[in-house]
Amino acid sequence: MKILLTGGRGQVGTEFTEFIEVNPDLGIDLFVTDLHNLDISDRKQVLTAVSEFEPHWIVHLAAMTAVDLCEDQVDLAYSINAIGTRNLVQAASTVGAKVCYISTDYVFDGEGNTPYREWDRPNPMSVYGKSKLAGELEMRPSDLIVRTSWVMGKYGSNILKTMIRLAQGEGEVRFVGDQFGSPTVVADLIRVIIDLVRNDQSGIFHACNSGSLSWFELCRFVFAQAGADPNRVVEISSDQLDSSRKAPRPKFSVLDNMALRLTKLDPLPDYRVSVAGLVKTLLES
Ligand SMILES: NC(=O)c1ccc[n+]([C@@H]2O[C@H](COP(=O)([O-])OP(=O)(O)OC[C@H]3O[C@@H](n4cnc5c(N)ncnc54)[C@H](OP(=O)(O)O)[C@@H]3O)[C@@H](O)[C@H]2O)c1
How far apart are CA 116 and CA 189, in angstroms? Predict the structure, then answer.
């Protein structure tokens, strides 16, 4: 199977590439792209790359992910997250490829208090969420949308690495106790993406580790795993946060992985297992 990967140098893309390299038995011929060799907002570049490689699937990770910057650079956010995605879908059509688009919990407003299902109505609050939803709207019925949340892996920067660094320091740290979600460890997300693609699935799937908690609770959990005192973590509310954070964050963005469950595909493990494993890996590296 030939897969063209976008965003291949990002947090998920780097680990995705490594996973395919160490699993040659999967028989996946991977063409790794990122901004340096394929700017997805450039339609001509996208059409050329896709027609030359002729993939069966495009696994589309590339995005403008800096949520606060998106508020200031609306056109840029849409040119990457919406137009870039449109370009990939159009190019996919020319070679009969399917697209697997990685989307986000930010498509929901977070005003609910029960886990969001794949068929619940999106209502994004931020430019990032709106532009990612715009990308979703470019998908054809045969394409695949995988919505995930609170992604954390071995590469790039993420909040888990920040929490580990704080655990290794001293003194009090403050995290919000009124924003709830589910962590997603990159290795688990990659396994699901590959399962879905190899099963030739289409439609929307939510994919996050099972279990949900607040950032405050996650930080306490990470401190405990890292051998630090969880009581150093102090709970604050969102309105006590730095007001320079421009983008609104959903207060409750737990994703029910209903479609995975109903199609009897393997669920992602509990976050306690996966996050603990990732903390250990990061501490040993
Ligand atoms: N991280 C999360 O918590 C989270 C949660 C839910 C969903 N997601 C989604 O998951 C996907 C992967 O996330 P991630 O954490 O791996 O993001 P990431 O680390 O920010 O990676 C995104 C990649 O896209 C590249 N890119 C930006 N503009 C591009 C363009 N015009 N053409 C081609 N490539 C471009 C970036 O390159 P540069 O670095 O050079 O700009 C970067 O390598 C994204 O679609 C994101 O929306 C992430």
Answer: 18
C-alpha 268/C-alpha 246 separation (Å) is 32
Per annotation, catalytic residue among 78, 116, 128, 271:
128
Q: All domains of the chain, ordered by start, with CATH?
A: 2-158+183-211+254-270 (3.40.50.720)
Q: Whose CA is nearest to atom 5 of ligand 1?
A: 149
Q: Report the half-sphere exposure of 133 (CA within 13 A, side-chain side).
A: 16
Give the pLDDT mean for 72-93.
Answer: 98
- E-strand ranges in 82-150 read 98-104, 144-148
With the most atoms of ligand 1 within 8 angstroms of its CB, the residue from 4, 9, 11 to mutate is 11
> Which residue's C-alpha comes closest to atom 4 of ligand 1?
151
The more confidently predicted of residues 156 and 244 is 156
Q: Would you say how long the chain is, in residues?
A: 285
Residue 244 has pLDDT above 80, yes or no: no
Atom of ligand 1 nearest to the CA of 101: 45
pLDDT at 122 (0 to 100) = 98
- The residues, ordered by sequence, that sit 6+ positions from 43 with a Cβ below 8 Å of its Cβ are 83, 87, 90
227 C-beta neighbours (distance < 10 Å), count: 10
With 0-12 CB in 10 A as exposed, 13-18 as middle and 19+ as buried, what is 89? buried
Report residue 129 as tokens.
Answer: 């969420």
Residue 251 is predicted with a pLDDT of 96
How much is the pTM?
A: 0.98
- Is 128 among the catalytic positions? yes
| pLDDT score recorded for residue 245 | 86
The per-residue pLDDT for 162 is 97
Give dist(CA 149, CA 107) in Å, integer: 11
